[in-house]
Amino acid sequence: xxxxARTMFPLMPAEVFDEWLGxxxxxxxxxxxxxxxxxxxxxxxxxxxERSLAEWxxxxxxxxxxxxxxERLSNVSRNVVMQLMMHGSNQGQLASSVIRDSESRYxxxxxxMVEIKGFPGFATAYEDSRGKLWVVDGHHxxxxxxxxxxxxxxxxxxxxxxxxxx
Length: 166
Prior knowledge:
The chain is an alpha+beta fold. Helix content is 45%, strand content 14%.
């Protein structure tokens, strides 16, 4: 199942696949056979940002350090990060229940950041034609980061997917 999925995204770096899709596939399974398959399941539709598997298979990837992350996030990604931060710090209700173990993931990310004095690993995002980042993996870590004073000055490593057409 994971090997089938991995072959469908030959341009995706192995570490991105393992941390993002590999983890999700082990939790949810993989219902697709080819990149031409239509995404019908709501969770996979959301995970792939309402883009087709063929689009994701064509994306070009680069590892970049992103400065001033808050300004680069799409409105949707910024809202998700802020909801998670407020929920994780017990300042509000989480509007979306689709994320498993949300509070523990937030707290774990926060504890790790205190311990290592930095951002753990990398976040993963799609960059649109306006330069906005649509986060697909790393929301909880970004939310935990926003709870620290001076977080805006921290540079975050991102694996960024872009369309070869843009």
